[in-house]
């Protein structure tokens, strides 16, 4: 294997270390990973929930909140319809659970059994028969044109919350909330479906709790500039800046009526910071007869945020985390806007809301990780705070699952990905997604324990089904690899349960490292799952076949579709033509390990776990840290694995500390005497924790070793 440690600028590392108050090792890893802007660094060094973006920045959020509050006022019946995977189930539980808690007449539904993906005509008509008037989709809906049209015919409004790539044309819903909309101004596109639902709940909570909801307010500030004064103001609604004004005034030279101030401030609630100072300034500029109705918010904010009490905005700028990470130089008004926003969000927090939000963010973290969303930007805060809350106080349902899986209080992100989420997802794969969703709504602890046990059993059954199905279709997969020019795998069969199509496609990807499609044939309907490889955008492939599908959706790396059986042969032929046009990035001759840092041996102490934890959670677009260390002594080697010993457990001596290390699938290297006990070796490795009998021990996972 080739070890690649990118060259980086020492000056850039020093600048980032000094500006963001982090050590040089942390700064070097950030730079080597291409994380060098204040905005991107912020989400690695901070994890305060206040750093989450304003939910009202999502297009359509205002209209969605107004419609839901109107439904509450009128006692309307609401249906929350979510997808049946982990992302959809967790998002459904977040949204429907909140609406239920605020006293709304809400029911939930997700696809189950042989139901197709997404909002169905049956669900719409069933809800209409019960006099329902509002459907809110979660993690689906962006491609359900006919169903949403039918809902409108039945006098049902549909709010679509989704995160899948939209088509050029959009369904005629009441409103659509999706960060991937073509003209969306939301700064982060990669929220999960449950993340969008979490945002909607945050917006609803603000609307329910804050007197500022829907109010037009204005923040006003004055500051000297040479012989003049700058008057600056920002209009805000729902903590979003909607307009700004800047006037430069020379004292005594102009009447206030000859400025834009009267028109801009008319009808606004005006807040200022240090009112006495600004009143003096307006008197100096326009005379004693001018009086502007300003409310000095400084005392109130000072009580809520003591560190800013009686401080000037310039001084607060020096203390501000937002200012530290901002790419532009913030002025006093920017600081005031950020300070007021934090204050307003803190005002609506009480112990009950905090407890509810902790329960919601646990689910949002699970769905974000399960749906393989990039663990960057605010997804990092959702995942980190969710995992933190899950460790401290697991919400009902998750507590019972963690207990069944022996994960209570001690797990890492990989355990969520590989142990917890698959159990929840097993319900969908086995045709009973509603059991997983019911776990998060069930009030009786005994019933939750029973449901958690059912999910664990389903997961065991899913594993058996996966192995049985693979044995049946394996030969077809090898043949398909040749039939599709060794660039694509496509397998279809009545023997493939639609619940494991994604697993079959993923196994084919691991086998051949090409995009793969597995299709389940069930009477007249075929259901397929697609998984990508080599950074190929599978959405481009699906778009070329869109006229054959009943429905299709997904991301660049994974997707799904359904079609009539009569169109299957045509699809298979089209895919053969598409396979001939597929081009991949050139394969590298030698596997390369990207190195984050080379560690001196005295850095290899248990304290290194603090650095590991800071970069958690690991996952999509944020791989585990990879280090190299040189001239480590091999003190002991043992074979592990049954029935054949394919792995090694080593004890490595770094001088002050001895490190246990696992080396998977490389027992033959020791057998063949490529290295021996007491040899000095260079090692490329990850660092993790080993949990044994409730004891926590740091250990290395060796990726490569060179004598």
Describe, in plain words, how this protein is organized in 3D.
With 707 residues, the chain is of the alpha/beta class. It folds into 5 domains: 2-8 and 591-706, Beta Barrel (OB fold (Dihydrolipoamide Acetyltransferase, E2P)), CATH 2.40.50.460; 55-209, inorganic pyrophosphatase (n-terminal core); 216-347, Ribonuclease H-like superfamily/Ribonuclease H (Nucleotidyltransferase, domain 5, 2-Layer Sandwich), CATH 3.30.420.10; 373-460, no CATH class; 484-581, Diaminopimelate Epimerase, Chain A, domain 1, CATH 3.10.310.30. The chain has a 5-stranded parallel beta sheet, with helices on both faces. Strands 9-8-7-10-11 form a 5-stranded mixed beta sheet. The longest helix is centred in the middle third of the chain and has 39 residues, at 445-483. The chain starts with a strand and ends with a strand. The model has no long low-confidence stretch (mean pLDDT 93).
Question: What's the short story on this structure?
Answer:
The chain is α/β, with parallel strands linked by helices. Helix content is 42%, strand content 21%.
């Amino acid at each position: 294997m080739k070890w690649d440690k990118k060259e980086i600028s020492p000056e850039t590392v020093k600048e980032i270390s000094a500006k963001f108050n982090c050590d040089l090792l942390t700064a070097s890893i950030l730079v080597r990973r291409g994380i060098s802007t204040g905005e991107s660094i912020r989400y690695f060094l901070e994890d305060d929930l206040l750093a989450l973006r304003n939910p009202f920045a999502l297009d359509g959020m205002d209209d969605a909140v107004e419609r839901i509050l109107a439904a509450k006022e009128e006692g309307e019946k609401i249906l929350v319809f979510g997808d049946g995977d982990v992302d959809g189930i967790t998002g459904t539980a977040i949204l429907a659970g909140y609406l239920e808690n605020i006293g709304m007449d809400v029911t939930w539904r997700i696809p189950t059994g042989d139901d197709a993906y997404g909002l169905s005509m049956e669900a719409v008509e069933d809800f209409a028969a019960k006099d329902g008037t509002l459907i809110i989709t979660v993690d689906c809906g962006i491609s359900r044109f006919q169903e949403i049209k039918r809902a409108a015919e039945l006098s049902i409004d549909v709010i679509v919350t989704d995160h899948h790539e939209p088509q050029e044309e959009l369904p005629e819903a009441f409103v659509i909330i999706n960060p991937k909309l073509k003209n969306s101004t939301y700064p982060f596109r990669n929220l999960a479906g449950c993340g969008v639902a979490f945002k909607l709940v945050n917006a609803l909570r603000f609307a329910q709790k804050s007197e500022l909801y829907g109010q037009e307010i204005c923040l006003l500030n004055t500051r000297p500039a040479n012989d003049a004064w700058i008057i600056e103001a920002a209009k805000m609604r729902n903590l979003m800046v909607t307009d700004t004004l800047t006037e430069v005034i020379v004292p005594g030279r102009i009447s206030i009526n000859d400025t834009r101030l009267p028109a801009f401030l008319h009808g606004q609630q005006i807040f200022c910071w240090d009112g006495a100072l600004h009143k003096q300034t307006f008197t100096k500029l326009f005379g004693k007869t001018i009086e502007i109705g300003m409310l000095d918010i400084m005392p109130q904010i000072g009580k809520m945020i003591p560190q800013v009490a009686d401080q000037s905005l310039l001084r607060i700028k020096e203390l501000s985390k937002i200012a530290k990470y901002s790419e532009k130089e913030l002025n006093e008004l920017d600081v005031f806007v950020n300070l007021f926003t934090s204050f307003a969000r803190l005002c609506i927090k009480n112990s009950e809301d905090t407890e509810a939000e902790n329960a919601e963010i646990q689910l949002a973290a699970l769905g974000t990780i399960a749906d393989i969303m990039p663990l960057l930007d605010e997804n990092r805060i959702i995942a980190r705070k969710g995992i933190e809350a899950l460790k401290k106080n697991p919400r009902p349902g998750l507590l019972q699952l963690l207990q069944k899986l022996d994960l209570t209080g001690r797990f890492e992100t990989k355990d969520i990905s590989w142990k917890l989420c698959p159990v929840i997802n097993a319900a969908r794969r086995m045709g009973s997604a509603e059991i997983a969703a019911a776990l998060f709504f069930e009030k009786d602890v005994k019933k939750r324990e029973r449901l958690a046990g059912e999910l664990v059993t389903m997961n065991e059954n899913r594993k058996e089904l996966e192995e049985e199905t693979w044995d049946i279709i394996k030969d077809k997969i090898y043949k398909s690899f040749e039939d599709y020019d060794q660039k694509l795998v496509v397998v279809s069969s009545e023997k493939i349960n639609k619940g494991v199509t994604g697993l079959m496609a993923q196994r084919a990807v691991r086998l051949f490292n090409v995009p793969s499609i597995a299709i389940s044939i069930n009477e007249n309907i075929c259901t397929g799952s697609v998984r990508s490889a080599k950074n190929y955008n599978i959405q481009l492939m699906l778009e070329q076949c869109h006229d054959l599908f009943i429905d299709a959706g997904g991301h660049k790396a994974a997707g799904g579709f359904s079609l009539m059986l009569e169109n299957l042969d045509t699809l298979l032929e089209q895919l053969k033509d598409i396979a001939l046009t597929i081009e991949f990035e050139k394969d590298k001759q030698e596997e390369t390990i990207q190195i984050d840092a080379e560690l001196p041996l005295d850095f290899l102490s248990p304290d290194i776990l603090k650095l590991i934890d800071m970069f958690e959670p690991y996952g999509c677009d944020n791989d585990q840290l990879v280090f190299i260390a040189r001239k480590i002594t091999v003190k002991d080697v043992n074979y592990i694995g049954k029935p054949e010993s394919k792995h090694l457990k080593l004890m490595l001596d770094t001088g002050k500390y001895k490190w246990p290390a696992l080396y998977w699938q490389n027992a033959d290297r020791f057998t063949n005497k490529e290295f021996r006990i007491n040899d000095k070796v260079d090692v490329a490795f990850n660092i993790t924790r080993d949990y044994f009998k409730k004891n926590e021990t740091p250990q290395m996972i060796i990726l490569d070793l060179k004598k």
